[in-house]
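Good morning,

Attaching, inline, the backbone tokens for the sequence recovery test we're adding to the shared suite. The designed sequence is right after.
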């Protein structure tokens, strides 16, 4: 059991000793000269895993999405995106300023867009309308409740994009969880997309970093834009070593987090009488309570941290620093407060 049970997000505050040792031992070089051996190894490894030609290591998932959007748009262009997707809500309008894009939101079901609804959002190109350039999908879908977007849906959305000469990007910050939950490989999920972003700093447990993967040509262009954003982060190998360690050691254990999230959801409903809003497919759940602020603040006094994401709604995310005893303690503490 952990002293602090941090269910606010899947960012791990203290990497394991073994991961820290791997990071300290990392061989480093200058990313500006493309000479950091550990970054190069990470980029080659993640590109291979996702079945793409190349990858670029970047500090954050936000930067990876920003670069992907820049690759497919000029100022005034439009990107079709699920209405609750991360770039629309939590990236500080960055793609509005860096790429000058407009987002066209399409409502999905728990974050999963119907390919027919995506197609219905596309119009005939005409000079007085914005040029529609790309479709962006988030998988797993954060605000949707950690939902896995089914592979068939991804293929159908990508077919819509191809029919209309548009590009595709998948925000796969938690694609690892989608792969672990569904049994599909990362490469199967990535195949229908031009570019995919993945984060090492969420359930994978590395302290820093994300990657953008795609064709060699796209990644070379993204490299230029990364530099513009100040992302030529010199001896980043020390951080990339954490990401490599995460891929070797933490990917296979994500199903434990999914089991813990399911156990928490079941206990909240059956033992605490709370209503869980999503079907738990991966490591995330949202529950409803009128006393959300009160409950979260009382739990924090007991070392249990959760986030109130909107009035009356609390989010919990499981990760490698939350074990089954922590889930039990969380449930008994909430039960005692009812
Ligand atoms: C779906 C999704 N995409 C992108 C990001 C951005 O990642 P970062 O916080 O590394 O910028 C997040 C962060 O929570 C996310 O949930």
């Amino acid at each position: 059991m952990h002293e602090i049970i941090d269910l606010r997000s899947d960012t791990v505050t203290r990497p394991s000793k073994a991961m820290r040792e791997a990071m300290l031992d990392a061989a480093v070089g200058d990313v500006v000269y493309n000479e950091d051996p550990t970054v190069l190894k990470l980029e080659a490894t993640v590109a291979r895993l996702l079945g793409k030609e190349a990858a670029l290591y970047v500090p954050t998932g936000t930067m990876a999405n920003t670069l992907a959007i820049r690759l497919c748009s000029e100022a005034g262009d439009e990107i079709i995106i699920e209405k609750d997707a991360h770039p629309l809500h939590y990236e500080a309008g960055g793609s509005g300023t860096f790429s000058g894009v407009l987002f066209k939101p399409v409502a999905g079901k728990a974050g999963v867009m119907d390919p027919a609804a995506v197609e219905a959002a596309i119009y005939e190109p005409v000079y007085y309308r914005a040029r529609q350039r790309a479709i962006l999908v988030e998988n797993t879908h954060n605000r949707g409740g950690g939902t896995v977007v089914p592979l068939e849906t991804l293929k159908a959305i990508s077919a819509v994009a191809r029919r209309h000469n548009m590009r595709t990007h998948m925000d796969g910050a938690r694609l690892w969880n989608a792969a672990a939950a569904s049994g599909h490989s990362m490469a199967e999920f990535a195949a229908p997309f031009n570019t995919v972003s993945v984060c090492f700093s969420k359930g994978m447990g590395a302290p820093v970093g994300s990657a953008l993967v795609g064709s060699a040509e796209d990644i070379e262009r993204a490299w230029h834009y990364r530099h513009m954003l100040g992302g030529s982060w010199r001896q980043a190998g020390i951080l990339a070593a954490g990401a490599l360690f995460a891929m070797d050691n933490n990917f296979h254990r994500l199903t434990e987090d999914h089991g813990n999230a399911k156990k928490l959801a079941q206990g909240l409903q059956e033992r605490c009488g709370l209503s869980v809003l999503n079907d738990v497919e991966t490591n995330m759940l949202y529950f409803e309570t009128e006393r959300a602020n009160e409950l979260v603040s009382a739990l924090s006094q007991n070392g249990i941290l959760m986030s109130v994401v909107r009035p009356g709604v609390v989010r919990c995310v499981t990760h490698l620093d939350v074990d089954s005893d922590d889930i039990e303690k969380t449930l008994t503490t909430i039960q005692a407060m009812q």
